[in-house]
Structure prediction request, 168 residues.
Amino acid sequence: MANEHILAAIKVGMRGEIDSATVYESAAETAEREKAPEVRDFFLERAEEEKKHYNWLLAYYKEISGGGQPGADLSAGSAAGGSPIITQEFLRRVGQNRQLSAALSSAILLEATAVKHYMNCAEEAVQAPLRAFYESLSAWEDKHYHDLISIQEESERYFWDANNWKPF
Prediction:
């Protein structure tokens, strides 16, 4: 019974990872059309990281559903990349493009939802290894969330300028 709860929580996480990868891939396609290779590469890197997270969660799901016990080694799955180096040109391109700005907003929402989901799971977990598992997953997503919030905040001026909204 406890494993069913764990499996359900992992499935929610897997869905979020796929949704995030889809948003990032769409943003990369938009950046490609806009001839913004730096922005394209950023979103492609994010999509690949989300796919790694998904595949890692899928392997963990299979392990648990096959009778394994919670407490997997998180080192392979939880390694998050460093903060991206963001240039003013990157911020301008993201801020001035409505599709890229919308993708950024969507990604922020997905990351925030994932953080909340994993923290709730951690709070409900009785076993210490399982609690650590969910806390690690939350840390993945919290890092992404804060990186994206920073980009959104720093590109805001370009967004309002491109949309001719004053008083900026």
